[in-house]
Design a protein that fits this description.
The protein is an all-alpha fold. It has a domain of about 35 residues. It is built from 3 helices and no strands. It is elongated, with a radius of gyration of 20 Å.
Length: about 60
C-alpha cells in the first residue's frame, strides 16, 4: 500500500502513520483476501523454476 503527496506536506506523516497502522493490524491483508480469491498465490510462489527444455526462438515466439 502506498501514496503520493507533495514533498514537505504536513499531511504525509499523518497519512503514513494511518497506512502503517492498517497494514500492521492486518486489515490490508484481510481486505485483499476477502475481495480477491487468489490473493495469496503471489505470496506462495516458488523461489526456483526448473526448465526441462532448451531455450530456442520457437519457445519465445
Amino acid at each position: 500500500m502506498g501514496m503520493i503527496g507533495q514533498k514537505g506536506s504536513p499531511l504525509i506523516p499523518a497519512i503514513s502513520h494511518r497506512i502503517r497502522a492498517v497494514v500492521e493490524a492486518g486489515l490490508y491483508q484481510y481486505w485483499l483476501d476477502s475481495n480477491f480469491a487468489n490473493s495469496t498465490v503471489c505470496r506462495n510462489m516458488p523461489s526456483k523454476y526448473t526448465v526441462q527444455e532448451p531455450l530456442t526462438l520457437a519457445n519465445i515466439w
